[in-house]
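Quick question, first post here. What does this chain look like in 3D?
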Amino acid sequence: MKNQTGMMLIEALVSLVIAAIALLGTVTLMAKSTRSEMESYQRVQALTLVQDMVSRINANRQVAACYSNGATGLSTTSAPLPACATGAPTPTANQAATANADLAAWKNALLGSSEVSGGSKVGAMIGAVGCITQTDPTNQIYRVSVAWQGLMPTAKPSLTCGKDSIGDTSLRRVISVEIQIANLTTT
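> Answer (accepted):
Ran it through. Tokens below.
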């Protein structure tokens, strides 16, 4: 009995060390899970915003060129929106107003106005940027993209949307859709 004094204390300390290591593993797993959940949320938000703008362009297809209008991207900064003044054919006042309102609404959505918590806009991605590019004027093909800053490094996207504001890092994410506006005139 004299030789075994303190053994129970050592056994209890070893058990505590094992439990602490297990708890640290659980905390690390929870942190990674939270980051993955946020990445997934941001991707869903970006997909929703891309599809929203595609629908808006399709609804005002006669002046689809007004949506790209030489703009490099609608960022979350206070830069002015591009004004719809050109297009083929020349837009009517109503079509131009619709395009400008669509771009303003999209910019507000990029800023997170779709969800508010305690007076703060929280419904957007980190550093969201929206880009609408006319990739083929002859066939009326447009690329609608949304870029944002992710939380975990991944492969760098090849698209340039958001490159100026977010940087060309492995944290930049881009989702894009190409659409072709049909020519509905009869010949």
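The chain has one domain: 2-180.
The beta strands are 74-75, 116-117, 120-121, 129-136, 141-149, 172-180.
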